[in-house]
Amino acid sequence: MAIIGSLVKGLINLTGVLTSEPNHVDAQAEVLKTLLTKATDTSFGTHYNFKEIIASEDVQKAYAESVPYFDYHKISEEWWSKILEGEEDVTWPGSSSYFALSSGTTGKKSKRIPVTDDMISAIRQAGIKQVAALSNFELPAEFFEKEIMMLGSSTDLQEKDGHLEGEISGISASNIPFWFEGYYKPGVDIAKIDDWDKRVQRIAEKAKDWDIGALSGIPSWMELMIQKVIEYHKVETIHDIWPNLQVYTSGGVAFAPYEKSFNSLLKHPITVIDTYLASEGFIAFQERPDTDAMKLITDNGIYFEFVPFEPAYINQDGSIKQDAPCITIADVEKNQDYVLLISTVSGAWRYVIGDTIEFTDVERAEIHITGRTKFFLNVVGSQLSVNKMNTALMALEEAYDIKIPEFTLSATRISDEFHHHWYLGTDTDVSEKELAKALDDLLKDANKNYRVARSKALKGVKVTTIPTSVFNEWSGAQKKKGGQVKMERVMSEEKFATWEAFVAEELQK
């Protein structure tokens, strides 16, 4: 009998009973006041007169009117660069113990995003909230005695100028509570291995020694790890190695495109729980089993604002125009795409995180990530979001009984006419022309703007199928494998030319 598991499950259930659901509107107003009050005497708070904002009759309105929008480049150049130079009390009291390295998607030049002790604490609190939400899922007591495989970036953080640098998953794993270390796999020694292939090889070698009940990590790299373990032990599914595997906590990107290929590695279905942990903070998690939407964490050190995702408000580079309208959580509506802005306990202020979201349930503050501002394809008015692309590809998978876990595309010119050129990571005998026609028809049916564009300036769709492994090698060549690295879904014409040259070279090997 799983006595310890029963106790843990009981405590989680009790936590769920004792924890009341916050009023999201009130919680957000309180979070903003707390952030402004704590940062009042920082250089940023002084510059934008936080004292006057706090004293105003409508703090949220005054804040929006006083502080401009910041993307990474603007806030880094004007403010965060001073923290890197050793200044204190710049955008948040004191200094940052860590800097999260992030390129957003694959890219050689990393962004450096401050991670304060207050943010580390907020991430821990968000993790506790997520664990407490497990009481909503029908998991047996035995599950709570199993080990958890957290497949993130290396925990071997690099010291630089008095702070430590690494990807947010590595920073989080290096700060796990002492009582959790016994459950955490692959363990400290393996997690420190920086080389992805060597780390996964060690995981494969040790896999049979562990009783894994849950997995956590980005889907593309999790799939590769599972495939390596299966191959190393010459078995059919991951359940032949980890028979008690019951939960997968996905994060970083939408799980839906990977669902079919991921499930093919399992002997039986498992519970998939989505989370939204970005380099800038722990933003949301799936709280209940009867939806795949995630609940915004509205009472834990992050203040959210929302800009309607309309072409008129977005610059060519994906940044927001300073005169774009902005609303609070009190005024959001269902099924409207918004650009997400955050202000945080790490000293991000009205920061454009780069993601677009939609609310599926306003009262519960539940959302879907619909894409990236830079991945929004609006050449000749087609207005395609990543969410709409994912939906079309899932329908294509169903129609042809194929798996398409990876893709990228660009608007390209063929004989001076615009086409959408898709690269699909899939193994199929279906002709590329047939897939292109089917994909085109699916997008026409689902998207009015796309249908109009196809009748005018957008002349056609081209599909090229390639092995999924090419996408992984591209990520490795652009930055490195594993961790937080994600595939670009939409590329500029210039980047796409580099991609095509890379693909041609890989296919010749």
Would you kindly provide a written description of the structure presented here, covering whatever features stand out?
The structure is a single chain. Helices cover 36% and strands 22% of the residues. By secondary structure, it is an alpha/beta fold. Mean pLDDT is 84; it is low at 1-11. The chain has helices at 3-18, 24-38, 43-47, 50-55, 59-66, 72-84, 117-133, 168-173, 188-191, 196-206, 219-233, 259-263, 386-400, 432-446, 448-454, 468-478, 493-507, and strands spanning 98-102, 111-115, 147-151, 158-160, 163-166, 184-185, 212-217, 247-251, 271-278, 281-285, 294-296, 302-308, 338-344, 351-361, 366-372, 406-414, 417-425, 458-466. InterPro entries: GH3, GH3_C, GH3_M. Pfam families: GH3, GH3_C, GH3_M. Residues 392-494 form the GH3 C-terminal domain. This is GH3 auxin-responsive promoter family protein.
Give the SSE map:
Layout: H1 3-18, H2 24-38, H3 43-47, H4 50-55, H5 59-66, H6 72-84, E1 98-102, E2 111-115, H7 117-133, E3 147-151, E4 158-160, E5 163-166, H8 168-173, E6 184-185, H9 188-191, H10 196-206, E7 212-217, H11 219-233, E8 247-251, H12 259-263, E9 271-278, E10 281-285, E11 294-296, E12 302-308, E13 338-344, E14 351-361, E15 366-372, H13 386-400, E16 406-414, E17 417-425, H14 432-446, H15 448-454, E18 458-466, H16 468-478, H17 493-507
Parallel strand pairs: 1-5, 3-6, 3-7, 7-8, 8-9, 17-18
Antiparallel strand pairs: 1-2, 4-5, 9-10, 10-11, 11-15, 12-13, 13-14, 14-15, 16-17
Pfam family, one: GH3_C
Organism: Aquimarina addita
InterPro entries: GH3, GH3_C, GH3_M
